[in-house]
Design brief:
Helix content is 46%, strand content 13%. Strands 1-2-4-5-6-8-10-11 form an 8-stranded parallel β-barrel, surrounded by 6 helices. A two-stranded parallel sheet has the order 7-9. By secondary structure, the protein is an alpha/beta fold. The chain is built from 18 helices and 11 strands. The chain has 2 domains: 243 residues, TIM Barrel (Alpha-Beta Barrel), CATH 3.20.20; 78 residues, Four Helix Bundle (Hemerythrin (Met), subunit A).
Amino acid sequence: MPPSAGWRLCVAPMIDVTDRHCRYFHRLLAPGARLYTEMITTGALMHGDVARHLNFDPAEHPVALQVGGSEPDALARSALLGERWGYDEVNLNCGCPSERVQRGAFGACLMAEPALVADCVKAMQDAVSIPVTVKHRLGLDYDESYGFVRDFVGKVYDTGCRVFIVHARNAVLKGLSPKDNREKPPLRYDAAARLKADFPDCIFVLNGGITQKEDALSLMAQFDGVMLGRAAWHNPGILSDIVRDDQPHVALLSTDEVVRAMVDYADSEIQKGVPLRIIARAMLGWMAGRTGARQWRRTLSDPAQLNANDPGLFARAWEDIASRNSAGEAVIAP
């Protein structure tokens, strides 16, 4: 099993967010962070366009494939596809509470069937040599008994799984939207900490409610790693901020260097038929909280400019901000 340092800083799997373009951008901001794909169902991998779902840039490593499903055989075949495609990890989703996922009998509702989850994890482990990990909640609906999640983790632990990503909230399966499920069930970091104490040879990555750099750094001292979700989408610069304080020896790219890299990347992707707007959306929040953020977002969301499919738009947007700010890089560097 790789050392816990491999999971110290992670970016969560987010549907319609963490596509390969978003992950490439996040990699520029946070060398070494572990990046997760959107959840991809076994059905999509068994019957859909596999390359479209699984292609990624080599720069994204370490990168993990998150799969959704509840049939051991289909999950094993999906895991094998992920390994053959070059992923560093395959992660089973046991945390998504959406009704669409529930209709497929996977996601958070799987926590009610720990024996089935164990069978799924074992089948995946037998199929691949890369780590098989599980992302889960602390409980279902309004049952906050610690014994429920302890027994769930224990059953999966018996398969040999040693990496658990804990979204430190319950999943309410009826009556709450996915957005509400990310916000309304109370955070229970104490229960996640009990899991770490009860399974000391496991890696526990904490997810949920981490929106500030200071919180992430504090929780890194208590857990083996943290996973950021919407914070990394709305304010990508937080990834660089965390790396800068947590790993001061890691060389970070300057804003100029990130912009140039994204211009080159976008140029290559546009030649493959990818619209600039698909690439630009991951960058919209990059200047959040910094001088020039509004102008940056306005430029990168302007339909007329995006429709020109000119990757130089990124450079012009940055140059415009820098020219307005005499402090330049010192003020708005990521």
